[in-house]
């Protein structure tokens, strides 16, 4: 059920939360950090006292210690979790994210689009320290199958074109068979990523990898591949979720240096370069 007149502009309850260096380490391990266990740059993600923090940690920070499956219940919105997949995600870090801290996030529903057979719900979040210093901003959308047709506006369909030439950097990013089970330790307990029967009922032959896990793994690949492993250099990272990834598959990440920003297109090598992430944009500070 979606009632745009109630949903659009609604502010969700504030989330107060804290995180530790151990949480950051766990998140990075869930993205595959440590695969080169004697590499100093790699170990920078896993330092016990002060690990560098990928900006994509912002996607899990507020719910890191959740143990229940999420619910898609907001003002004017009540949707079966099995119908929902991630649509887009953007994070803008307003400085290097500290390895430990306390913060408060405020989220508003800004748009609800009617795509006919589906609905798209857009949220924007601002996160600040407890004394009001802005840490990051996020914008995300979810795609709810079977929830369209309520007579709303269709909304835009923006896209980011990559340069018409060979990629400047091509990286293979392997995922592990247990990758989704590792990533759910970061607070996303959606059974779509762990329960074979739930996944089958949702229309997938097996549990799929969290879209935000793919998102974080690609941010790390871009950071390591073109930014010298400096997570603090990433100011903005955004992407569109274009297809599913199954744990154990290998991603191919093609990266273009586009006049000061980095564009990427990510495919699944194991399935004939099926798209995984498109419209991947990284900007640096």
UniProtKB/TrEMBL annotation:
One of its GO terms (biological process) is fatty acid beta-oxidation. GO terms for molecular function: (3S)-3-hydroxyacyl-CoA dehydrogenase (NAD+) activity; 17-beta-hydroxysteroid dehydrogenase (NAD+) activity; enoyl-CoA hydratase activity. Residues 162-261 form the MaoC-like domain. It holds the Pfam family MaoC_dehydratas. Residues 17-146 form the Peroxisomal multifunctional enzyme type 2-like N-terminal domain. It comes from the Bacteria. Belongs to the enoyl-CoA hydratase/isomerase family. PANTHER family: ENOYL-COA HYDRATASE CHSH3, PEROXISOMAL MULTIFUNCTIONAL ENZYME TYPE 2-RELATED. This is 3-alpha,7-alpha, 12-alpha-trihydroxy-5-beta-cholest-24-enoyl-CoA hydratase. It comes from Rhodococcoides kyotonense. The lineage of its organism: Bacteria, Bacillati, Actinomycetota, Actinomycetes, Mycobacteriales.
């Amino acid at each position: 059920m979606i009632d745009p007149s109630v949903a659009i502009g609604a502010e969700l309850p504030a989330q107060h939360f804290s995180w530790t260096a151990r949480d950051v380490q766990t998140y990075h391990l869930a993205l595959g950090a440590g695969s080169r266990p004697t590499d100093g740059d790699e170990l920078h993600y896993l330092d016990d006292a002060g690990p560098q923090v990928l900006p994509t940690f912002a996607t899990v920070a507020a719910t890191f210690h959740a143990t229940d499956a999420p619910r898609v219940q907001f003002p004017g919105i009540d949707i079966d979790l099995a119908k929902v997949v991630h649509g887009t995600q953007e994070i803008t870090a307003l400085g290097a994210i500290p390895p430990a801290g306390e913060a408060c996030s405020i989220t508003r529903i800004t748009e609800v689009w009617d795509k006919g057979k589906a609905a798209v719900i857009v949220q924007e979040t601002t996160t600040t320290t407890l004394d009001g210093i802005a840490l990051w901003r996020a914008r995300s959308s979810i795609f709810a199958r079977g929830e369209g047709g309520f007579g709303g506006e269709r909304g835009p369909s923006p896209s980011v074109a990559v340069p018409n030439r060979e990629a400047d950097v091509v990286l293979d990013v392997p995922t592990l068979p247990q990758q989704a089970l590792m990533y759910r330790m970061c607070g996303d307990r959606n059974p779509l990523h762990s329960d074979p029967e739930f996944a089958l009922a949702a229309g997938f032959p097996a549990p799929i990898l969290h879209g935000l896990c793919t998102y974080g793994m690609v941010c790390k690949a871009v950071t390591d591949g073109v930014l010298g492993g400096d997570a603090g250099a990433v100011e903005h990272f955004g992407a569109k979720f274009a297809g599913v990834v199954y744990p154990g598959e290998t991603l191919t990440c093609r990266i273009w240096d586009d006049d000061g920003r980095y564009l990427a297109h990510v495919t699944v090598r194991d399935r004939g370069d099926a798209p995984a992430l498109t419209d991947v944009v990284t900007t640096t500070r």
